[in-house]
Design goal:
There is one protein chain. This protein is an alpha/beta fold. It has one domain: TIM Barrel (Alpha-Beta Barrel), CATH 3.20.20. 22% of the residues lie in helices and 23% in strands. A nine-stranded mixed β-sheet has the order 3-1-2-4-5-6-7-8-9.
Length: 219
């Protein structure tokens, strides 16, 4: 099945209401729209169930379901949501409906056409992910202070790589930069100490949803 559908629908893995577990809005009640499909295969991925399957949903139907939760914040995620081209139309529709919208994207696909009202939370894949060659560095030119850059780090080598990227691309001058550790791979306390020792201008984050609910889906 192709990633796009002539009727203008999107393949959706799930829509659910939870607390935002990561990024600048961590802790906020949020409606998550998880789109199906991803061209990357990060070795530590925790949403492999979103690679395939899902249900075709009309954009208006998605927005209507989101509105039922009476929550201002909406996060469009995946998989890789931008793998479906009509994700851009969904983001516009959600913004037009009055929601505060964020997009979680791998950074391997062009983000320049994303509606400016959307906060792009863009990963830069470290070597430990197995997908660092897929980073589309030109995306950095599209980012503004409204956006966020996220590094998910598996070990000290990933951390050192991220420090080089932080410095060489002046990332902290572009937008908020977030460092987090791969769940069960890198101790958060170790990452926190490295950040403090190196006086990094970044924000440390942990996966709040996993602390609260573990690997349970829809949380």
């Amino acid at each position: 099945m192709s990633e796009t559908d002539p009727s203008g629908r999107l393949r959706v893995t799930e829509i659910f209401h939870s607390l935002q577990g990561e990024a600048r809005d961590a802790g906020r009640p949020t409606v998550f729209v998880r789109l199906t499909g991803c061209p990357l295969r990060c070795v530590w991925c925790d949403t492999e169930y979103a690679f395939a399957g899902g249900q075709w949903r009309d954009i208006d139907d998605i927005v209507e379901e989101v509105a039922k939760y009476e929550t201002r914040h909406v996060c469009v995620t995946g998989g890789e949501p931008l793998a479906q081209k009509r994700c851009l139309s969904l983001l516009v529709a959600l913004c037009d409906a009055g929601f505060d919208v964020s997009l979680e994207t791998s950074g391997a696909l062009d983000v320049s056409d994303v509606d400016a009202r959307v906060s792009r939370v863009m990963d830069l894949k470290a070597p430990g992910s197995g997908e660092s060659a897929r980073n589309l560095w030109g995306n950095l030119d599209a980012l503004t202070a409204h956006d966020q850059i996220k590094f998910v780090l598996a070990d000290r080598a990933d951390y050192d790589w991220a420090c080089v990227a932080l410095r060489e691309h002046a990332l902290a001058q572009r937008c908020d930069v977030l460092f987090s550790s791969v769940w069960s791979k890198l101790a958060p306390r170790d990452l926190a100490q490295w950040i403090l020792d190196d006086r990094l201008p970044v924000r440390m984050q942990v996966q709040l949803h996993k602390i609260l609910w573990g690997e349970e889906r829809g949380k």
